[in-house]
Write a structure and sequence with these properties.
- By secondary structure, the protein is of the alpha/beta class.
- It has one domain (3-235).
- The protein has 10 helices and 7 strands.
- A hairpin with a 4-residue loop joins strand 6 and strand 7 (230-231).
- The longest helix has 22 residues, at 43-64.
- The chain is globular, with a radius of gyration of 18 Å.
- This is Uu.00g096450.m01.CDS01.
Length: 236
């Protein structure tokens, strides 16, 4: 099945309807996040992490019935540069992502859709050593004899909002609310979130129609989205 074969009735009934619709409307037949590799030294672990990330995304798409259509258009582009990205902060990666976005987003559309509606140009993934360390417990639990009794710990990436700056989000805290600093930011919304790789396709779809900074949907790190039943502090 290709995009050209998809009827309106079919995609409107799909859990990934917005992603499909925007590819049809813009002619930009790609979806998926750029992935910034910010840890080096173990290429085998990295290759395994990416293989399991793609497996998790496939499972999500298969569950929604969209794998046959959408996997051929998925682009999980890895940005690698050990000299520039090894140990890079999220702010540094955000600046690099925005520079890439500004070079490419205007050239791929014949008309400028709302940038917030194109998650590939609004958000990116960040994988540091802490995220990479979620690989081992994830793989170990998947191969355990009781793997059907409970889901494995999530494989985790950090999702970075390319448009974040602290002044823009002052109003997201209710009066009297205070928050412990996360990497120096004491706002409710810190411009990024840990997320399970299993749910990245669903996140991409949701970001077509809303921002990541929703007051009730967003959970501050170290919680892991989307359900926030696990914390990075519990995994690594």
């Amino acid at each position: 099945m290709k995009l050209s074969d998809v009827s309106e009735d079919w995609y409107l009934g799909s859990p990934m309807r917005s992603t499909i619709r925007y590819m049809l409307e813009t002619g930009y037949e790609q979806w998926g996040f750029l992935i910034y590799r910010c840890t080096y030294g173990d290429d085998d672990a990295w290759d395994s992490y990416m293989a399991y990330l793609r497996e998790e995304v496939h499972s999500d798409l298969d569950h929604s019935g969209c794998d046959v259509l959408l996997e051929q258009y998925a682009r999980w582009t890895v940005v690698e540069d050990e000299s520039l990205l090894d140990g890079a902060s999220k702010d540094q990666v955000r600046r690099r992502f925005v520079a890439w976005r500004d070079r490419h987003s205007d050239s791929v559309f014949q008309w400028p859709p709302p940038r917030a509606r194109q998650p590939r140009f609004a958000y990116c993934l960040y994988v540091d050593q802490k995220c990479l360390d979620t690989l081992h417990p994830h793989v170990e639990a998947k191969s355990a004899a009781n793997r059907r009794d409970r889901p494995p710990p999530p494989l985790v990436a950090a999702v970075i909002d390319g448009d974040f700056h602290e002044g823009r989000f002052d109003s997201h805290a209710r009066e009297g609310e205070t928050y412990p600093p996360v990497e120096g930011c004491a706002k409710k919304y810190v411009g990024w979130q840990y997320y399970s790789a299993r749910c990245l396709a669903g996140l991409y779809e949701n970001l077509q129609i809303e921002h990541m900074d929703g007051y009730f949907s967003y959970q501050r790190p170290p919680a892991i989205g989307p359900w926030c039943s696990r914390s990075m502090d519990d995994l690594v």
